[in-house]
Amino acid sequence: MTRINSVAELEELRKGILSKKDPDKPCIAICAGISCLGLGNGDVISAFKEEIRKQSLEVEVIATGCHGFCEKGPIVVINPEEICYLEVKPEDVPEIISQTVIEKKVINRLVYTDPLSGEKATHMSEIPFYKNQMRVLIGHNSKINPKSIDDYLAMGGYSAFAKALLGMSPVQVLDEIKKANLRGRGGGGFPAGSKWETTRNAPEEVKYVIVNAHEGEPGAFMDRALFQGNPHSVLEGLMIGAYAIGSHQGFIYTRHDTPELRKNLDIALAQAEEYGLLGKNILGSGFDFKVEVHFDVGIFVSGESSALMRSIEGKAPEPRPKYIRTSVSGIWDRPSNLNNVETWANVPLIIGRGSEWYNSIGTERSKGTKLISLSGHVCNSAVVEVPMGTSLRDIVYDFGGGIPNGKKLKAIHFGGPMGGTIPESLIDNPLDFDVLSKLGASMGAGDMLMMDEDTCLVEVARYFLDFLSGESCGKCVPCREGIRQMLNILTNMTKGKGVEGDIELLEELSEVIGEAALCSLGRSVQKPLLSMLKHFRDEFEAHIKEQRCPAHSCKELIALEGA
Amino acid sequence: MSEIILQIDGKDVAASEDMTILDAAKKAGISIPTLCYHEEIEAYGGCRLCTVEADVRGRTNIVAACLYPVQKNLVVRTRSEKIDRIRKMILELLLAHAPDAFDLQDLAKEYGANKDRFEKDSSFCIHCGLCVRYCAEVKKKNAITFVDKGKTREISFIPEISAKECWDCKECFPLCPTEALQAAFVLAKAFTFPSSFLESAPAK
Ligand SMILES: Cc1cc2nc3c(=O)[nH]c(=O)nc-3n(C[C@H](O)[C@H](O)[C@H](O)COP(=O)(O)O)c2cc1C
Ligand code: SF4
Ligand code: SF4
Ligand code: FES
Ligand code: FES
């Protein structure tokens, strides 16, 4: 690789890459996302490599990021035709090579079959799951090799960065992001433009930009899907942000327990550096920027902005009070702008295609698309990307495939341990930051947990508090002790030991924690419980007054009933 | 340094801009209860007992007085129905761990806190962090540390350091609002000073 010194050289390089690519050459894209790997895709990848070596074929095999349809993994896509094979086993590999790759025949057994109509769909674009999504962020995952910057360049990568760097002033870039109404995807929905501006305008000369790729919410897996599958798209967003904000040092804070992601990130950074897209005088513009990767210490609170910055400083991830915002005083007390993986990945799209295009997608106050991870009682656990404003019903039924085992949907929980639950009756609402918070369930990071009629919400509330009891830092009293007591009370309820007044005590604890805790973890721990009390209070009352679990789920109560 | 005028409990109070609400209140002779605050060490914000109401630009915020920086025109209320309710609950949560601690009992009386409201977990330590931070910041020895996280967080003496430093110091002992530090030290002593521990054991 040689260093690129100007936009002209970048375009020259891009042309060169494209001209060397033979569009008809078969390329086998095998999903190496966390879910498919868990289902044994490592063996499928080795089987393909082995078979191709044995037959000395001219075929490329790439281990890609998550394709989205995780439920049907391991997934293999044969490009350029985009023939999509589901639930592939290593034994299928010789047949795929001889039939599909060499003879161009489709193996019917491995393609998608509609569970209702029995109809088959061979190509990705025909499978209903993919067809109705709007995959502007994650759509490239099934086509590109995340370990190859050339693949990213071939699809037009880094042209938005080049446009910003040499065609726009930092303020113009900032204005474009503001006009796009980009809101943070990490949970708060805070306008990215005004946060950037705060850091940009902070007096301190040295400023930092950071990618939050901690993704600690149980049930959230879209950030990893995107970052592992297309690391350069996030990196490009970060670079554009750095230019707009006036930062020359970026940080990526990510999970320590995802080796594939780690590998892809290291490679992406090394390749960007070799091309001179990171480093000094980037593309001859005079702009310098470098990026460091830091790993979390496996505790949920380290995704909180001030705790995350502490952790990057090498200290324990304990939150600091936010009387001075981290965008003004963050890492080493310097202005630090933190955004979520998905937020950053939207930036090149906005700069490349313009804020007007971005504003054409979504609702009045929630623009663009949103990645959603579906889990729980849903036929397809999956990562989907839909325009903001899509109805929740469509997400659950069209993409999620509905509720398994003929059960009825009872409720949907958004945003994990700091989120909220809505009942099935509200399912015709749109995916929208403000609508969801009005319903008592913030969008969170975009993780939706479906719960069927057999789910006990007292138990779910208990589960989230149990999770948090080990994942808060434990520094401040309302959070550490409040969680402990709330957990005690709920655990007692599930065992038939609830007493009159428990609900009121939970509400009083909720108020104190919500107001007096130090950081937003503590100030949010009561949210799942309060949303469940709002919509399902009678279920909590039944546990106390009648020692009855209406969902027939709490084992000790069922035993009591039987007695 | 320029002077700032703010209002605390209806009184105009003058403060310098590097002060917190707690500093300003002290200067004006207004008392705010604290458990994790100590003049010689950096404010921590752990106990939240110093929680007060602060009106900023027409909005009432609930903030920790020991950390919140003073601002021009800030209006602070150190007592209100809400503040008292928060303090009462914090005390009740702590009394579940250390029902006999004197500092807590006095405060409990003032705020009407019931020491039996919550299920007991007599681990004594209320995690004020005074011992840990005093040792780190004032003595610069780091002989005590917090280990673990969330509800299993606790203090721990680091044997290699404490064997050298603690015997002749023990300055943190009087800071502890409960018996926890003593208990932890006795436990640590068993490992770090096996001989002296045996000596102090009652004779057969
Ligand atoms: C306890 C806690 C955990 C969090 N974990 C994450 C996380 O894993 N990823 C994330 O992007 N944001 C997380 N956040 C939100 C961040 O603090 C921050 O608001 C976000 O990264 C800002 O990016 P955005 O504006 O692009 O959403 C967490 C917040 C809290 C309070
Ligand atoms: S609210 Fe919880 S996580 Fe946040 S500082 Fe307090 S104990 Fe730690
Ligand atoms: S041992 Fe005592 S001084 Fe140390 S943290 Fe616990 S309560 Fe505070
Ligand atoms: S991990 Fe393979 S499709 Fe999601
Ligand atoms: S004295 Fe302020 S939080 Fe403890």
UniProtKB/TrEMBL annotation, chain B:
UniProt cross-references to SUPFAM superfamilies, sorted A to Z: 2Fe-2S ferredoxin-like, 4Fe-4S ferredoxins
Keyword 4Fe-4S attached: yes
Residues annotated as domain 2Fe-2S ferredoxin-type: 2-82
Start and end residues of each 4Fe-4S ferredoxin-type domain: 116-149, 157-186
UniProt entry tagged with the keyword Iron-sulfur: yes
Keywords, comma-separated and alphabetical: 4Fe-4S, Iron, Iron-sulfur, Metal-binding
Function: Ferredoxins are iron-sulfur proteins that transfer electrons in a wide variety of metabolic reactions.
Protein name in UniProt: Ferredoxin
